[in-house]
Amino acid sequence: MRSLRRITPLVVVVLAGCGGSHMPDDEQADFGASVVARGVIAAQQKCDAVGMPDLYECAEAPSSPTGERMAARVALGMYRTFQQSCYETAGAGKCEALVEAAYRKAKAQESSTLETGIKKPPEGG
User: pTM higher than 0.90 for the full model?
Assistant: First the structure.
């Protein structure tokens, strides 16, 4: 899936910790997908800023002080961890759909936040 290659980092421990939690499997999968999507978005922004929109390429780039390589590697690691745990309980199709939906939702929230954060100039000013 091409959009997942562009997915964008934070905490693999959160995903690993979901396996032992008392949340129902569906809630675990939704939460994990949300964490993965936000991590991917953050990494994607870092990689885009240096002209590397593909996370896989960005993860293989030379290390830099701006941290895009590390961000991409963490995001991809989170995604792989999510795949392994989610696929066992929910199946590949459902897990991929959850990540796609979480990604779209996070991007929409990000856009909404950016739009509301921009102040309009006073009219007639």
Answer: no
34 lies in which domain range? 2-108
CA dist., res. 87 & res. 109, Å (int):
27
- Per-residue pLDDT band for 103 (boundaries 50, 70, 90) equals very high
Q: Which residues contact 50 (CB under 8 A, 6 or more apart)?
A: 58, 61, 64, 66, 68
What is the spatial distance between Cα 10 and Cα 48, in angstroms, rounded to a whole number? 17
Check: CB of residue 53 under 8 Å from CB of residue 6. yes
Cα→Cα distances 11→81, 89, 112, Å? 11, 21, 24
Please indicate, yes or no, if residue 81 is contained in any of the structural domains. Answer: yes
